[in-house]
Amino acid sequence: MSDDTRVYIYDSTLRDGAQTHGVDFSAADKAAITRELDAIGFDYVEGGWPGANPTDDAFFRSLPETTRGRIAAFGMTRRAGRSADNDPGLQAVVRSGAPVVTLVGKSWDFQCEVALGIEPAENVRMIADSIAHAATVAEEVMFDAEHFFDGYKANPAFALDCVKAAHEAGARWVVLCDTNGGTLPHEVFDIVSEVVKVVPGSHVGIHCHNDTENAVANSLAAVRAGARQVQGTLNGLGERCGNANLITIIPTLMLKMGMTTGLTEADLKGLTKLSRSLDARLNRVPSREAAYVGERAFAHKGGLHVSAVAKDPKCYEHVDPDSIGNKRLILVSNQAGLSNILARFDEIGMEVDRKDPRLARLIELVKEREFQGYAYDGAWASFELLARRMLEDVPEYFKVDSFRVIDERRWNARGQLITLSEAIAKLTVQGERNMTVAEGDGPVNALDACLRKLLLPYYPQLSDLRLVDFKVRILNPEAATAAVTRVTIESADGSGVRWTTVGVSENLIDASFEALSDSINFKLHRDGATA
User: Fold this and answer.
1) Is 7 helix (H, G, I), strand (E, B) or coil?
2) 3-class DSSP state for residue 84?
């Protein structure tokens, strides 16, 4: 195993990640993500497959400038029966203008015979010819050994012949791919340990898929065995179950394994932002449970835990959340005690005397309301409003006089069913009574539009408020249509700050309106609006 601690990070979000169901990057998206990855210190950014589709062609026609990383073009080795310089597909990749060329080829004899219909020896020649040709044009060439681990388990000699041929032909890296995602960490470690006996670990990479939930573990096992390049995607995007998640791998390498990457300590603090930026671009809700960067990665709920964390965070945190740009979250629930409440106040900047008798009442109120169905551990903005209204003066930004929602179902001239929701609200704002009407795709959307329409003239800071998630939970399904409903709404502003509010009622519209109202009041109070 090499003593070198430097591990090179190769991101394939823009190619492998684009194979995720529901993900579709534009050329502009690819350019923007490339710049983000370059800025934070990734070594390689795989831009796509030139010649495969118009989007990738557009990206490679106008490559974004990079200063810390290098853009790679991905493609296949030459086809059987053609020379490397007379294969249109290979030429499109080699002549793409990217400084790095990554070529994928088979390394499992079964795949050669079944998928390609060629003899294994011809496959080895295809690899060597293609790498040697690409090396005459590109600044750097690497070989992705597809199905390497399945191939090695079936025929070790042939799999090793493939990677040796690539290395000897001039490949800077030979990358061992667990293409089907079925290899386990102990197997990866043992096999990579054998590979680095014939190809130096400083020239060996790993590319894992997550079909057994082992992509991260397999990548780390390969590094332990001597591999010094790791390929993966942001947030584990990828076909089927996804690829190895670089957002998890990078801090583990740096903070747990003593390895160095192209990221500095300051860069590492940008990982949480990078992860959430990708989700925002894809209009996806970030995984709250994601390791390191998830909202709940450093969330503490039990009173015993919170009390210990207040004394020393290392009691219940494996790393400092600030080291990856995340933050500690103290949850408040019916399990919470005084430690949780005070810790949460510290986080939001509320100065409260721990001997204040109102704190005991606040704790009891939280427990009472959670018995009714509220859940403040997932709706901290509603909790903050509850606490501030009890312990401080929170302005009444608006008073709800009445509201109603009407759903109309009708058929148009084509016989299509059309459903239209209309909301009417009467509010008193800054001493003035107002009424407005708005339409929406559904009752909650109509209510949201109605409130914004009425409040924006008074509070322009609401212009960047948007709802990003809406969840409904039936708390007592045995009550059927009379069941109590909990509505949770996640909101965000133009700067990307997110907050969650909750409403509970036997009436879905009432619960939704309560959560909407809390969201608006929270933003107004946070932004310092005056009533």
Assistant:
1) coil
2) helix
Give 90's contacts (C-beta < 8 A, 6+ positions apart). Answer: 75, 76, 77, 78, 84, 103, 130, 133, 134
* Residues in CB range of 405: below 8 A, 6 or more apart: 421, 422, 423, 424, 443, 446, 447, 509
**Alpha-carbon distances of 396 from 66, 309, 390, 456, 513, rounded to whole Å:** 51, 36, 13, 16, 16
Nearest to 489 by CA among 507, 473, 506: 473
Tell me which residue of 199, 195, 196, 143 sits closest to 171, measured CA to CA: 143
Q: Phi and psi of 10, rounded to 5°?
A: -120, 115
Rounded CA gap, 369 and 363, in Å?
Answer: 10
Judge whether 204 and 226 are in contact, CB under 8 Å: yes
Cα distance between residue 488 and residue 467, in whole Å: 11
Q: Which of 4, 108, 122, 101 is nearest to 50 (CA)?
A: 101
Six token digits for residue 245? 């998640």
Instruction: List pLDDT tens digits, range 484-498.
Output: 889 999 999 988 888
State how far the Cα of 339 lies from the Cα of 329, in Å rounded to an integer.
Answer: 13
Q: What angle do CA 358, 360, 361 make, to 5 degrees?
A: 65
Q: Which of 76, 145, 67, 126 is nearest to 99 (CA)?
A: 67
Contact 372, 362 (CB under 8 A): no
User: Does the CA dihedral 120-126-132-137 come out positive or negative?
Assistant: negative
Mark the ranges of the chain whose per-residue pLDDT is less than 50. 1-2
Q: How far apart are CA 316 and CA 232, in angstroms?
A: 29
Q: Give the whole-angstrom CA distance, residue 286 versus residue 431.
A: 40
How much of the chain, in percent, has pLDDT values that exceed 90?
69
- Close Cβ partners of 109 (under 8 Å, ≥ 6 residues apart): 120, 151, 154, 155, 158
Interatomic CA distance for residues 412 and 319, integer angstroms: 59
Q: How far is CA 448 from the centre of its chain?
A: 28
Q: What is the pLDDT of residues 194-224, one digit of tens each?
A: 999 999 999 999 999 999 999 999 999 999 9
Q: What is the pLDDT of residues 398-411, one digit of tens each?
A: 999 999 999 888 88
The amino acid occupying position 363 is I
Rounded distance between C-alpha atoms, residue 489 and residue 465, angstroms? 12
CA 307/CA 289 separation, integer angstroms: 22
Angle at 327 between CA 324 and CA 332, to 5 degrees: 150
User: Rounded to an integer, what distance in angstroms lies between the CA atom of residue 164 and that of residue 153?
Assistant: 17
Sequence letter at residue 482 = A
What's the CA gap between 6 and 26, in Å, rounded? 33
Instruction: List beta partners, residue 101.
Output: 73, 141
Q: Are strands 44-48 and 399-411 parallel, antiparallel or unpaired?
A: unpaired
